[in-house]
Amino acid sequence: MGHALCACARGSLSIEGQRYLLLQRLGEGGFSYVDLVERLQDGRFYALKRILCHDKEDRREALHEVEMHGLFEHPNILRLEAHCMVEKGPKHEAWLLLPFLRRGTLWSEVEALRDKGTFLPEERIVPILLGICRGLEAIHAKGYAHRDLKPTNVLLDDEEQPVLMDLGSMNQACIEVKGSREAMALQDWAAQRCTISYRAPELFTVERDCVIDERTDIWSLGCVLYCMMFGEGPYDLIFQKGDSVALAVQNQLHVPASGRYSAALEHLLSSMMAVNPQDRPHISYILDQLEGLQAAPSGQDTTRI
Asked: pTM of this prediction?
């Protein structure tokens, strides 16, 4: 049974033959919103993501997100419980029924600590980052990349295990770009689908003959780690001030010496933030480093980079 929540029903709906009560709005973006719903059969709570579809292309993209969910059954990737496409006059809505994790996002955790003037300790960062990496490893193993990894797209369950969500920007891991037209098309796509302050440098100005691979996720992973260590992403403030993120990411990131974290973790962060994607490690290497950090006695430096 679901845990008791203080919420008033705002109507009901049906998905794949099951009835659900609409309880409250959890969040919304430019083209979707998420509601808390309760299944009448057993009182369990779910998050219902509703994607607004104005045309066939929107419907295709929503079904792509459904398809991506269907590829995985992994503890660190949010599972899809049910889905349907609903007609709303001339438009459609794609309904995706997802597990409800009451702790919310990794960003909520970081923000709450930052507001208290404190930060995540390394002994919490490492297992969270390990879980994120295991989810990414499963995605990369299928030949895909997430492309929009950020703290608001990582949920935490009751045991503080991270769960990757929002798979709508996922596409093939290795993209071979041939010519200026393909380069501009990929650049435009990235501008729409990859959050600017977590977007890899090679997606800001796509070269006319190049290969973009899954290491765009490694850059974003580095930004997530930086956020956990310092309370905000490395380029969040630049974006908020209206300065050029595209210009800022072309320079090697300086990792502040905080004294809170081991040299090994700081070096790992620096390796993820290499401007040249060919200099960034693959996810298997990062997992190996993190497992070494987790196994090391507290306070012992395990630098192997």
From this structure: 0.92
